[in-house]
Amino acid sequence: MANGHVRELQPEGHPKVYQRIPRPQWISRFPHPTISHFSKAEFFGYLLACIIQFFPNTFWKLCPHWISRWFHWCPTSTQTLEKAEKEVLSNLKRPCEVEYTNIGKCCEKVDSFIRTVSLNKNSDKTPIVLLHGFACGLGVWIMNLDSLSSSRPVYAVDLLGFGLSSRPPFSSDALEAEMQFFISLEKWRESIGLDKFILLGHSFGGYIAASYALHYPERVTLLILVDPWGLPEKPISHLHRYDLDSWVKFLDSFLQGFNFLASVRAAGPIGPYLVRHFRSDLLRKYGRYGNPHCILEYIYHCNVQHPSGEAAFKSMTDKSGWAKYPMMYRLNSLDWKIPITLVYGSRSWINRQPGLQIKYSRLNSFVDVQVIEGAGHHVYADKPQEFNSLINRVCDNLESGVFHMRNV
Asked: What SUPFAM superfamilies has UniProt attached to this entry (predicted)?
């Protein structure tokens, strides 16, 4: 852009260093942990956490319906989440369609559904599909949907296990859980009748988008990864195991036995207050769109439902939060005809170097790395105008045959 808010990221050092990066046999490099990997303190800490989570969940499944209906520890329900989503989407200026898409039997014996919001479906341009990140839903794109749909169809979905999509039991195996995500997305595509589309994913959604493109390359015309999680391998420094006291190992394993957002659900009726207190940044990001508190209500209700997708995400990470099967080297096998654009926030905690390594390991393919100045991890919300302008231009360049971008 002329105002200099967005810049193209250049590598540190000589680009040839990236040409010699070997492509590892990534499946064999990350063995699944077994009990022998853990000390007694770690094992019993993790076991206690599982027991604490098991009994309340079992109680609510077995207790009479009238009891569970009368007493809600967390003040939420599917209906309240639908109401919160409706209030968020009411700020759109363009008409939209919100629906449940039946994707059939994906993770269990009953049909699953994907929540979808679509805009400008009648445009003949290539559609763009938006995948949100962890602990979010389609409502987080509220500041982007109007602009991105100005000239092309836009579809934003709740990933399976998140938002208002079905929350089936995922496999506890990392690869199988990943497979369930990209298969559910493919079944969704088949159900709504999309042929080819631009696929954009943020954070964890970027990981799923990359996985989908690897398995269904004929469907993806452009892959856009926005501050993607799960690209790099765990650094060697994180692999070192310190000689900690047994009680420290016990406490560490105990806390890691819980799902990531268990504390919000455990807080019960004070959960909404905690979200307002610890995510007050959302008021600043979304304050310009109607009632600024509606996005906080939406995020809260998204994350106190049954933690299906949350559990799947945990299965796909190691104890430190790194992807068990990182995507950086796997993308070397992506069809070279598929262009990739990576978008980072200059103030984000996500490391940008893996994006550059992808760029210089795919020399026969178009890979572009862009940085939006002043944006954090949630690039689309921190700098929505700059983000929308960049994404629209990238999509237009694809259709006009212009694959190379200089500083913008």
From this structure: alpha/beta-Hydrolases (SSF53474)
Contacts of 313 (CB under 8 A, 6+ apart): 134, 204, 260
Query: What is the full DSSP assignment across 331-364?
Result: GGGS-TTS-EEEEEETT-SS-SHHHHHHHHH-TT
> For the segment 363-372, what is each residue's pLDDT rounded down to a tens digit?
889 999 999 9
pLDDT band at 34 (very low <50, low <70, confident <90, very high): very low
* Bridge partner list, 323: 317
What was the pLDDT predicted at 390? Answer: 98
Strand order through the sheet with 6-8: 6-8, 367-372, 340-345, 220-226, 197-202, 128-131, 154-157, 112-119, 97-104
Sequence spans of domains, the chain: 78-231+243-402
3-state helix, strand, coil in the chain (%, to 5): 45, 15, 40
Query: How far is Cα 119 from Cα 147, in angstroms, rounded to an integer?
Result: 10
Superfamily of domain 78-231+243-402 in CATH is Alpha/Beta hydrolase fold, catalytic domain (3.40.50.1820)
What is d(CA 196, CA 401) in angstroms, rounded to the nearest whole number? 16
